[in-house]
């Protein structure tokens, strides 16, 4: 028996390496065999690796700066619950089907060719994070060496980073995944060292952080909305990442462990660490900037330090931990960036396969993904960070809700459905995706409701079953065989 790899090569199942890295390579377009399933704690390392990246550290710290510690923590708990429920629900679909979120969307929600939209959303999400992480590393490197931001610096540094991510995604993914636990421990250890330094050595009072009320004026709802607008959209992001790894789970218990790990670390642990370091360390960052830039006023230094929270998060590691902090952010980000570049390339492979039936080489798509990431950096994605997350959340939450609605609400009424035929275009799902996402984005853009991505998710959950009755299977589309929708039968 042989299976098709993303590069279109046939390999014997007996020759497949059982490591997660090799399985991810070999089963991009097929179902994961039972003998290659993994335990929940092992699988949880991947979403936790994503959840402990610089960009999530920035999100947690910025949410507390806006809303204050208490409201920020409450917001984090609420989003953690939403992310865990969403992740568990989506992960059960992936666990039972054994395929990735992109392939799952072919059978549930969008159809064989319609799943190209799911691939595009996932690719845009992952490549966007690839771009933002590179931009954060770039800013941290400038600070570490005192370099100026010039076109020559951008070309050389971004070029070196891009080549590194391409090499890691193509040749070093196994090493990156196997070192995940070590890198997570090192990242958290350095963060704890910074907390100990700020409060134990410098003598700052942690109660100043716990009692911090935030810069947003108004009552609880105003602060909660501000923090939720920054953090909430990532619930769909971490859920889709978790879903991709859930296809490797052995049991439902493993699925639960996997679904809880990412949201809890991302929305609680990183929020607390981000708050303690960003707020408690802000005075020293201001002093550092005033010492570095002669003539800089305290007000200007405070404004610049505040901007570091979102645009130069690595600065806190560099200023407090020097070379150790600098090396740490690079080592930890290398692991996350390898996964981002790899996942982005697979989404692009799946997207082309869904449209044409041709699977381009993964190495080619890794290069394409990184080029797209550079274009995003050039477009200023780092300075549109909050807006990017919010608008992206409309699409990811709507996409997630459609798959959930199709699997649990629509398909459960179908007694016999073995997927001998798969729609090329599920118009009910596609119309729901566009309508729900556009409405949510419109609410945010006009200022009517800042949490429009929540509306997108809820609306998709309700709208899809109704549209599916009006546009039942086969409406305005042709069918394909399940062997074409997925190499190995579902």
UniProtKB/TrEMBL annotation:
It comes from the Bacteria. Signal peptide: none annotated. The chain crosses the membrane at residues 41-67, 73-95, 116-135, 155-173, 180-200, 220-243, 255-280, 300-326, 363-382, 388-410, 422-445, 451-467. Keywords: Membrane, Transmembrane, Transmembrane helix. This is Cytosine permease.
